[in-house]
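The passage that follows is intended for readers who have already worked through the single-chain material. We present the inputs for a multi-component assembly, then the predicted structure in tokenized form, and finally a short commentary. You are encouraged to pause after the input and sketch how you expect the pieces to fit together before reading on.
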Amino acid sequence: AQTIHQWPVAEIKAVGSPLSLGCTIKGKSSPNLYWYWQATGGTLQQLFYSITVGQVESVVQLNLSASRPKDDQFILSTEKLLLSHSGFYLCAWSLAAKTEVFFGKGTRLTVV
Amino acid sequence: QEKVQQSPESLIVPEGAMVSLNCSFSDSASQSIWWYQQHPGKGPKALISIFSNGNKKEGRLTVYLNRASLHVSLHIKDSQPSDSAVYLCAVNGNEKITFGAGTKLTIKP
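Having made your guess, compare it with the prediction:
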């Protein structure tokens, strides 16, 4: 069975500090990977997607970057956090385009 | 850029009622349309999808798609308190997936 693990579960970080969020997918080879962000009470917004190792496409510019160093790993990061980065970050995967997307449990980020 | 609008924003119905949720999208190109359920503090979970015009039934759920009018609806029969959640409409076009803002559904026992 496929599993998706996100870390950390929650973070409280200072404005201007760096951030790294991670996601690992087990049990599925070469999945499409996605990062989503959801402000409190807001709409789920796609940030990045990746269809293969080393290739990441940006969908929305939020002063964040993403990398896929391994087939089963997706990393979201920034060198300098803004207050506007607060929210709920979700990693997700799918077998292919237009198919069901499976979400992780998310990371709650609070920037103070 | 794809736009997805959902209505109503929130809905409160008694247990056992039929629930109807609406979603409009902006691009008639061939994409799959998905409905997701999201509980507070959790990731969304897919419920049902549709690709072709017409309807599709799975258990208590029925989805209707009309590409000409750029509209899709989800109907939940015999609603239960456990159906209370936010329902998200998603337009899945290749690797870009656009979600609507959601409808918050509350089923009163």
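Commentary: The two ends of chain B are 40 Å apart (CA to CA). Chain B has a mean pLDDT of 94. How closely did your sketch match?
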